[in-house]
Specification:
single chain; 10 strands; 11 helices; 313 residues; disordered C terminus; 3-stranded antiparallel sheet; globular; alpha/beta; Rossmann fold
Length: 313
């Protein structure tokens, strides 16, 4: 069994893979776009009017238009580790649309940075939307802490990532012929929920679903992963060629999973959202007490008017 440290990600390799994948990404990112669509549907049921929205791990910006439609008055920021992805996002937006948004103060801000070190001020974002990014981060607790820092009080984090059953067929097939890591490790839903609470988020909601893509051959599956930049970027990966003999052995192992003439690729999609709570104390330690007027009580010059309309002294 590989050393657990061998599953750590080489951040430079991750960046290079997505830089190379950027021009062709949109044509192959069927799953990522579908998950983003489902996340946007969930946002429709949440009451929120953010002044600024951060799409963390925006890729080519495929979720930005849906976010703009949901929050037309909000400023949009797109952050990604790979500059090539942001260039595709800018190109997809179009010069005319970009000019109009710039004139009316709603141009998308593009930020090339690591999510574990967000170059944003504290309490500057009302919503952080992050689709299929967290699995590319070595330190999710630090990423959550950064997201909490830049969210305003009562701001929302909504994210998706992949769970341990993701690409299990490929992982098992490689494990049968090679002792090195070939598929990344993915975090469990419960661990992610615990990390949110430890970071300081409130009311986390987590759920999961399993989606399956199918392929004619192992080569088609690997080509799709390469096209979206999902290379093996673990630090323990083999640096040389895999070899024809081991490739044939891996393909033979993968054939065990073939159903109805197709090879499945399982994705365990994890969804989560949580809120940044209002602070209970000032920086000097003094407590903050929040007062809220009951919506069923109206004050009158003569006393308190209840829901029934009678004045109560």
């Amino acid at each position: 069994m590989p050393d657990p440290d061998s599953y750590l990600l080489d951040t430079c390799a991750v960046r290079r893979a997505f830089e190379r994948a950027a021009p062709a990404y949109d044509g192959a990112a069927v799953l990522q776009k579908e998950v983003a669509r489902r996340m946007l549907e969930r946002l429709a049921y949440i009451k929120l009017e953010p002044v600024s929205v951060l799409d963390a791990g925006a890729g080519t910006g495929y979720a930005l238009e849906g976010l703009r439609q949901r929050f037309p008055a909000a400023r949009m920021l797109a952050l990604d580790l790979a500059l090539g992805m942001l260039r595709q996002a800018r190109q997809a937006e179009g010069e005319f649309t970009r000019l109009g948004r710039r004139l009316f103060g709603r141009a998308t801000g593009l930020i090339c940075a690591d999510a574990a070190a967000l170059p944003l001020t504290e309490r500057s974002q009302g919503l952080i939307f992050s689709n299929a990014m967290l699995q590319w981060c070595n330190d999710p607790p630090r990423v959550f802490a950064e997201m909490l820092r830049v969210l305003e009080a009562e701001g929302l984090l909504m994210f998706s990532t992949f769970g341990p059953d993701t690409l299990r067929e490929l992982r098992e097939a490689f494990a049968a012929v090679d002792g090195r890591p070939h598929v990344s490790r993915f975090l469990d839903l419960h661990d992610l929920g615990d990390m949110l609470l430890q970071a300081g988020f409130a009311d986390p909601v987590m759920d999961r679903e399993v989606l399956t893509l199918t392929y004619d051959s192992a080569r088609d599956l690997m080509r799709d992963l390469k096209t979206i930049g999902a290379h093996n970027a673990t630090v323990g990966r083999a640096r040389g060629l895999f070899g024809a003999r081991r490739w044939a052995a891996m393909c033979a192992e993968l054939e065990r999973f073939r159903e109805a003439g197709k090879l499945p690729a399982t994705y365990e999609v994890i969804y989560g959202h949580a809120w940044k709570p209002r602070p209970n104390a000032l920086a000097d330690g003094r407590a903050i007490i929040h007062f809220e007027r009951s919506p069923r009580t109206a004050l009158t010059p003569f006393g308190r008017k209840g829901a029934g309309g009678k004045v109560q002294q």
